[in-house]
């Protein structure tokens, strides 16, 4: 145990002793017993209340509050200790004492870590992870397991019966929302289901369910067995010409990564200029290791009577947001594969073949890491030893730190942050949080590190006190007494206890692993343009925020120190624009209705995950607050979620515009108001999200346009005497923004007459008449009379309206 952890734990014990035992002793010595010597009579009570208080009643109230607070805190501590002693995974909640109970839980957790981390039982109980499925065509719907709704059923009750946890009912709703039911009905409301309806059950429900995680007498989880059997028809071993052995699911991941890389090259391809001509050229050849893996994939599928998935099928799988549940580690003598669960993994590899197997495990997990699904954390020295120098490679999910200390600190931070998140949101485990909001990034985290005395003490606590609940795990390359150890021989046979004994570990060479990582890395952007015109280099955004969202005018997303705007999909830009108009947040249903008004039950999790991933990739942002999703924060409850833009990372011009208007309205003097309106007019660039056509935006578009025209008119009114030319320019901008408002034309005519530009004034009047004529309406008599008076007027100042 490190000095910091020891000090924190001892401090927690001291606070608990002082609060539970020391406080009542101190209070008793100062104020005496909280129990009265005798019960007061009615007369005594009446006299006390009616008489003047000399401080006695006030002190009695304070004494009562102090004893009551102590009793509530002591009850919270007792509940937390009792829950740990009985091994409860969800602590009972005391009504009205949420904050106090959270404090008690934090202190009790810290105290238990100091009392002693339990000794890990390497193979004390088996936990079966869902199978790692090869990327092959999906099973037909008629082969899926379904449930027939009975009278009195609810999604809560069905989830409890079929999924083992009633709080997993959102998974059933997500899978069946909008589905057709008998007699022409559709499943449109999770609160209303009818007898006879058939509901699809999640894929994971058909896998072998995980056994309960055993706990020690002090309430900590024992380290589970790290393997999970996979059916032979789902995954198997594939041999490569180099002698390497990989899983079918692994080689399918290589095919997916290659298809994604090829798709990105084609998507961003720029056709050549007309002067260059057209030639037929082949796509770049994949690296030999990648080519051999793809051939092995095609051959393995052919042996099963299956065809190679198309690029579109592979790409769809590559954009999944499901967190990987496990990774293949070895094959049995019958060639079927065994996988290990990622959450709670506590595995050490030793022997001459240990590094070869570690490369397979790490790259296999990175194949499933896109869209913030998984992360592999390891120090640079170990990364260089396993893969060679990786300075120029940016692989999604691969976090390389400069030292082992930094890697362990990140691991501890993730564990503590997620532990607090589970406590605050009253969730059983990380899977429940993911089910509540699949769009919030809570990636599986794997620490890869070499054991040492300092490392052992730092990671032992998290691995043995809730790694499975928090979705983290560790792979250690060396002797590790606190988990399952597998010795990998030269021929990659595994020596250990349990079903992994006698199996052959999957393994790849350093060169193959480096080639696979390069395939997982996004291709560089194109460097040529179709028509190379001389253009000035665009200025890079250099604001204080990582991202600047511009919505007044054409919508653009600028990234700091990046000259070109970030290109987002229509739905991603639509989502960001909608959230920007509601800085205090919107619910999941509000966002889904705005984005997909005609599609019942459409979820928004894929959109949010891909949007966050695009912003993280473009900015290189490293999320320091693990309890909050980056860029788009999510506050989840049991029933819904509220999404809002992170104001610390993203600035929006609409917000700045509104702030400038508020500043102008509250300005104490003329100069301050002009300065505030100047800031506002600098942001008046046109319609809200010009060119972004969507149903929800219509209600917001004209009000913002109208306010811009009003702002420009107010600004012109205030500066007419000191800067008439600038005022005239502001009025012309207002007319361009809102050409229907006749008063703006009249202000322009008056100012032009004042500046002795009568020809311009006549042209402005004609512009108004032509605009009304194009709309099919005549210019009103009152307006014509006003124009006539202005044009005949030879006064010395412009008219104000």
The overall pLDDT, averaged over residues, is: 80
- Estimate the helix proportion, in percent: 40-55%
From the alpha-carbon coordinates, what is the Rg to the nearest angstrom?
Answer: 34 Å
CATH architecture of the largest domain: 3-Layer(aba) Sandwich
How is the biggest beta sheet arranged?
Answer: 7 strands, mixed
Number of helices: 26
Report low-confidence residues grouped into runs of 5 or more.
116-143, 204-233, 528-533
Assess the beta-strand content as a share of residues: 5-15%
CATH class of the largest domain: Alpha Beta
Distance between the termini: 76 Å
* Widest sheet: strand ordering: 10-9-11-12-8-13-14
Using the alpha-carbon principal axes, give the shape: globular
- Overall structural class, as computed from helix and strand content, comes to alpha/beta
- As for the CATH topology of the largest domain, it is Rossmann fold
Q: How many domains make up the coordinates?
A: 5
Total strands: the figure is 21
InterPro entries: AfsR-DnrI-RedD_regulator, BTAD, LysM, LysM_dom_sf, TPR-like_helical_dom_sf, WH-like_DNA-bd_sf
Protein name: LysM domain-containing protein
Organism: Spongiactinospora rosea
Pfam families: BTAD, LysM
